Amino acid sequence: SGNQMSVWRPWRVARDLDWFAMMTIVLTVLALGLYALAVLPLASQARSLRGQVAELESHAGNRRHHAEPVQPASQLAVFYEQLPSVAQAPEVVHQLHKHAHSAGLTLERGEYRPLPDASAKLVRYQIVLPVTGSYLRVRQFLADTMREMPELSLDGIGFQRDKGASDQLKVQLRFTAFLRTPG
Description:
The chain is an alpha+beta fold and 183 residues long. The chain has five helices and five strands. Strands 1, 2, 3, 4 and 5 form a five-stranded antiparallel β-sheet that branches. Strand 2 and strand 3 (122-134) form a beta hairpin. The longest helix is centred in the first third of the chain and has 48 residues, at 19-66. The chain is elongated, with a radius of gyration of 38 Å.
């Protein structure tokens, strides 16, 4: 009955303790469990995150030292080089017509004229392009054109409903093509 004795002994000790002492022991055990289950993993995670931050800061510091300073003049030169040249104006117009046909629009005769530009590096061509088609086709044409032809800017749109077909619109589109001068 030595086993019985060892089982009864903790209960006798617990019975002899007062209520305050018993609650202190229970709360201490709960606090240690909470510390082991919640605080220790968070502390480990915080150490790991601090290490990652330090590593990222060191990489950012290295890049800062090696990065070339931004030169607006060189950025502008790169921009000009990406524009089509004046000699490619017919190709720009051809691409514009190709996008309109791909979108299923009917083209009417357009107007194309050069505009004076204060900069000697650019030539601006104003393009007025009348098209006929549904709203969705016009929208598709504009989305495709603006995405694939960055040398164009859309300056204006004029809508008029076609009297013959209810879903057809007569649309006058005004673009500016920015082309670079040779040299």
